[in-house]
Write a structure and sequence with these properties.
The chain is α+β, with helices and mostly antiparallel strands. About 40% of the residues lie in helices and about 25% in strands. It has 3 domains: about 5-65, Winged helix-like DNA-binding domain superfamily/Winged helix DNA-binding domain (Arc Repressor Mutant, subunit A, Orthogonal Bundle); about 75-235, no CATH class; about 240-315, Alpha-Beta Plaits (2-Layer Sandwich), CATH 3.30.70. It is built from 11 helices and 12 strands. Helix 5 crosses helix 7. The chain starts with a helix and ends with a helix.
């Protein structure tokens, strides 16, 4: 083996985190103990923390260091990680979805086609619950394709089914992905409409990178999240929700996240949301564990009564 091949093989063995006797490692790599020591020193220079025990019974072991160095994965490990990231990307754990998409895009950009087919096979034959019933489903391929285009500042084409409109073909300069509430959005400059737009990813299909690079424009907002929130507030919504709750405002704000506004109201708080359907506010109220009074809309009060009666019958 060449030096590079030998070091990769050595790293693969050490990443099992077992203790390797020096003679056994030398035999595995077909090198002398002196060459093995030099290879271990090269790994240390690259940031890997390798402990060594001297003597006849000495050996080597890789341990965690101050930073995470590059990892070397076997085929099965790469598939397992990709499947896990794909699941986490549409999961319900706050703060993990964005990071999962970034990590998944890195893995998929280097993954051979045969391993991609393995990953798709595992995902297609696995039933996994979404974060909650009724949440829009986003295709993982769409998600990772858009993430890579944002990262590389690459012009993108895709079909988009706007709200109550026919499917249109878009050419955009993608800037950033945003996870907000139950949905994913792409913030991008629309070349045909010469304006900034936010696109719901569950309405995007057949994204095609063009290979053409662009210089990112300045977004007319504090950041991509603020831009999406401004657009949502301008959109007509079916229901303007207002509820008084007997609980601290900061506690409810943690549960609601970025999908509603919580303000203090004496010893309690007021929740305000603009939504298309009432399932999300009902879920928030049910999980709050606090007494509440629905001020508007009347449909929400009816929905709460209906859900409460259903639970009562089940008990």
């Amino acid at each position: 083996m060449s030096t590079s091949e030998r070091m990769l093989r050595l790293l693969s063995l050490l990443q099992t985190h077992r203790y390797w006797p020096g003679p056994e490692l030398s035999e595995r790599l077909e090198v002398s103990p002196r060459t093995l020591r030099r290879d271990v020193d090269r790994l240390r220079d690259l940031g890997y923390t390798v402990d060594a025990v001297r003597g006849a019974a000495g050996g080597y072991q890789l341990r965690a260091g101050g930073s995470l160095p590059p990892l070397l994965l076997e085929d099965e490990e790469a598939v397992a990680i990709a499947v896990g990231l794909r699941t986490a990307a549409v999961g319900a754990v706050a703060g993990t979805d964005d990071r999962s998409v970034q990590a998944l895009s890195k893995v998929l950009s280097l993954m051979p086609p045969r391993l991609r087919r393995q990953m798709d096979a595992v995902a297609s034959q696995t039933d996994a619950p979404g974060p909650w019933e009724g949440a829009p489903v986003v295709d993982a391929v769409v998600l990772t394709t858009l993430a890579q285009a944002c990262r590389d500042s690459e012009l993108l084409r895709f079909d988009y089914a706007a709200r109550e409109a026919e499917v249109s073909h878009r050419r955009v300069e993608p800037l950033r992905l945003v996870s907000l509430g139950r949905r994913w959005y792409l913030v991008a400059w629309d070349r045909d409409r010469t304006d900034w737009r936010s696109f719901r990813l569950d309405r995007v299909s057949d994204p095609q990178p063009t290979g053409q690079r662009f210089r990112p424009r300045e977004l007319p907002a504090e950041d991509a999240l603020a831009f999406v929130q401004q657009g949502i507030r301008r959109m007509p919504q079916r229901h303007a929700v207002r509820v008084r709750l007997a609980m601290p405002a900061d506690q409810l704000a943690t549960q609601v996240g970025r999908w509603g506004t919580v303000s203090e109201d004496g010893d309690g708080c007021v929740l305000e949301m603009n939504v298309d359907d009432l399932d999300w506010p009902v879920m928030v109220l049910a999980s709050s564990g606090a007494d509440f009074v629905v001020e508007s809309p009347p449909e929400l009060a009816e929905k709460v009564a209906e859900v409460g009666a259903r639970f009562a019958r089940s008990g």
